[in-house]
Amino acid sequence: PLPVVLDGDPGLDDAVAWLLALASPDLDVRAITAVHGNVPLALTVRNAGVTLALAGADRPYHAGADRPLVRGAVTAAAVHGATGLPAQNLPDPTQPPQAEHAVAALIRHGRAQPGGLTVIATGPLTNVALAFRLAPDLPELLREVVWMGGSTALGNRTPAAEFNALADPHAARIVFDSGVPLRMVGLNVTMQCIATPERVQALRDLGTRAGAVSAELLTFYAGVYRERYGLNGGALHDPLAVAAVLWPELLEWTAMDVQVEVHEGPNFGRTTCDVYGVTGRAPNARVAVGVDDPAFFDRLLRAIATVP
Ligand code: BDR
Ligand code: CA
């Protein structure tokens, strides 16, 4: 199995993404690193412990950066509920977080397996950027960073910016400029993957606690997506980033240059993607430009079905 560290800000789609990763025998989840984002850090850390308990998985989890590098904090409690995991009957964490900081853990795991570690990042990139600053050798040592964030098109949190990019544009810029092998799974594909009422029912029909909790989280999410974006359910953003590691063939990839806008103004946090190669700049990422959504959901459902 492929060694991975999951870095994110649960957040209900992060939790579903992590269930998928923890349920997949092809991934060896070495650690979970929590970052500020959808809700404040204390909650994303707790939610990491809750998600591990829900998955029946015993893995170390770590608290990371509690705020963006430069800008003021942005959260998304309106989308994810005040706690980040709006569901009843969630298990308590079975263990406390590790004393080691998330950034130190990322560096340690990266150095322990040169060329072998994949980081699946589903939140603001603050932890990853700090790790790259503290350990300049890390970008060369990682197998890959796969990030849910950005968009080849426009944003969801501002007209120009996707939430994870907007929540720490400077960190995203550090990662995109680092030379690390990088894949970006942005809104242009994730907004095609909708947890429709039929799909939510299929999760509920699994008859498991993980299925029931996933269904409950995605039902809360659907309300927001219906009202805000006129969609028939919530978008499965973060699970698609895990799927991109498990089943890269389900997405279509194009290498291109991506610039992250760090000037404050209407485009703050935009990922400007050179889709047509008009700048002549060398690609710094492979960007998802297409997705087989039915196959993705089918495999997601089958994986979650294996969680008790
Ligand atoms: C991203 O923002 C967060 O609210 C979600 O968890 C996802 O990672 C989508 O823009
Ligand atoms: Ca997230």
From TrEMBL:
Record bears the keyword Hydrolase: yes
Domain of life, source organism: Bacteria
A single MF term (Gene Ontology): hydrolase activity
Domain Inosine/uridine-preferring nucleoside hydrolase, chain residue ranges per copy: 4-298
Signal peptide residues on this chain, from the entry's feature table: none
SUPFAM superfamilies from the UniProt entry: Nucleoside hydrolase
One protein family per Pfam: IU_nuc_hydro
Protein name, per record: Nucleoside hydrolase
